[in-house]
Automatic annotation (TrEMBL), chain A:
Name listed for the protein in its UniProt record: ER lumen protein-retaining receptor
Annotated transmembrane regions: 49-77, 97-115, 121-140, 152-170, 182-202
Organism: Ostreococcus lucimarinus (strain CCE9901)
GO biological process, one term: protein transport
Membrane topology: Multi-pass membrane protein
Record family assignment: Belongs to the ERD2 family.
GO MF annotation terms: ER retention sequence binding
InterPro entries according to UniProt: ER_ret_rcpt
PROSITE patterns, sorted: ER_LUMEN_RECEPTOR_1, ER_LUMEN_RECEPTOR_2
Length: 215, 10
């Protein structure tokens, strides 16, 4: 494993820890999209089915189990925790997830490496992950003045994607025969969505700064 | 085929 891949995994892990700590410490999930969290749970469950039949390494297994349990933990907080669930922005978090899930199902059935249950589910999870952040980004744009921890979460997720691109480049040049088109194209789309968001984020941040200047 | 794919990433 190269340094980019490891740093990417660690930023991904940190993003989830930051989100959980924010929810636990502030007893609030304001600005967090439950729809995105549910999509991530679907992504992790459909991708990590291989936990049952392939063993890659202890690291790999531990990380997969962490991603699955932490995503369900966040969903539990947002849906069932007595105090946290009341802070959920239900009226603002209205993105229609079917618009993301249905096209991903069709695409996974059409474009995959092998037409088998496990392989199609794996491909579906790759496609869905690339767009799963959209409800969160839209919510963040609607409720712009949320605490910085929510933006830190989104920022760390973006950093994880950027590091994974460096990891793919590194592996492409160092490992003969290393190639995975489905992962590369979805990952690039995912990073592009983040870049678009960061552009908007910086622009409105600067606008807010200018507005708050004393006259 | 699927078994040629690198699936050690998360």
């Amino acid at each position: 494993m190269n340094i980019f891949r490891f740093a990417g995994d660690m930023t991904h892990l940190c993003s989830i820890v930051v989100l959980l700590l924010k929810i636990e410490a502030t007893k609030s999930c304001a600005g967090v999209s439950l729809r995105t969290q549910e999509l991530y749970a679907v992504v992790f469950v459909s991708r990590y089915l291989d936990l049952f039949f392939t063993f890659i390494s202890v690291y790999n297994t531990v990380m997969k189990v962490f991603f699955i349990t932490s995503s369900f933990c966040i969903i539990w907080y947002m849906r069932h925790h007595r105090i946290v669930s009341q802070t959920y922005d239900r009226e603002q978090d209205t993105f229609r997830v079917a618009f993301l899930v249905v096209p991903c199902i069709f695409l996974a059935l059409l474009v995959n490496h092998e037409f088998s249950m496990v392989e199609v589910l794996w491909t579906f999870s790759i496609y869905l992950e690339s767009v799963a952040i959209l409800p969160q980004l839209i919510l963040l744009q609607r409720t712009f003045n949320v605490d910085t921890l929510t933006s830190n979460y989104v920022f760390l997720l973006g950093a994880y994607r950027a590091l994974y691109i460096l990891n793919w480049l590194y592996r492409y040049f160092t490992e003969p025969g290393y190639s995975q088109w489905i992962v590369w194209s979805s990952g690039t789309l995912q990073t592009a969505i983040y870049c678009d968001f960061f552009y908007y984020y910086v622009v409105s941040w600067r606008k807010n700064e200018r507005l708050s200047l004393p006259s | 085929a699927a078994d040629e794919l690198v699936k050690d990433e998360l």
